[in-house]
Amino acid sequence: MKQMTMEELNKITEAIIGSAIEVHRNLGPGLLESAYRECLRYELLQRGYEALQEVTLPLIYKGVSLDCGYRLDLLVNDAVIVEIKSVDSLAPIHEAQLISYLKISGGKLGLLLNFNVKMLKHGGIKRLIN
Fold first, then answer.
1. Torsion angle of alpha carbons 103, 105, 111, 116, nearest 10°?
2. Is residue 91 part of a domain?
3. Residue 32 placed within a domain
4. Is residue 1 domain-resident?
5. pLDDT the model gives residue 1
């Protein structure tokens, strides 16, 4: 992953959150995570960001790279991990999952987005730092 300043990461996360709010305004809650992922990726590409989906995240164990099936929902500008949910409410395990992804990848910043809420900015966004 690319190493960036916090200012650069903040700019990217602002764009991600703005894009997520746009997607949520248009679609509302209740859809599958894959639909939100595709639409969010589209919004980010339209705004000039690189957004890769389902990025394989190998686990390095005792110096060996192992494919354990981990996939990042979105990786934006090779710097910010976005984990997308469509659940009744975010649970501690969702945060733990994103923190683990940050640790494994060496990433600094991630966003946890839950689209199954009335308003995304009220309980649907968590910003996590490694």
1. -100
2. yes
3. yes
4. no
5. 84
The count of domains in the chain is 1
Q: What is the dihedral of CA 121, 124, 125, 130, to 10 degrees?
A: 160
Domain membership flag for residue 82: yes
**pLDDT tens profile 28-81:** 999 999 999 999 999 999 999 999 999 999 998 999 989 888 999 999 999 999
Question: Does the pLDDT value for residue 20 go beyond 90?
Answer: yes
Determine the average pLDDT of the residues in 13-24. 97
Helix (H, G, I), strand (E, B) or coil at 51: strand
Q: Cβ distance 124 to 94 under 8 Å? A: no
Domain that holds residue 54: 6-129
Residue 123 dihedral angles phi and psi, to the nearest 5°:
95, 0
Q: Residues for the chain: how many in total?
A: 130
Phi and psi of 114, rounded to 5°?
Answer: -110, 110
**Residue-level pLDDT at 84:** 98
Q: What is the CATH number for 105?
A: 3.40.1350
Q: Which of 43, 60, 108 is nearest to 81 (CA)?
A: 108
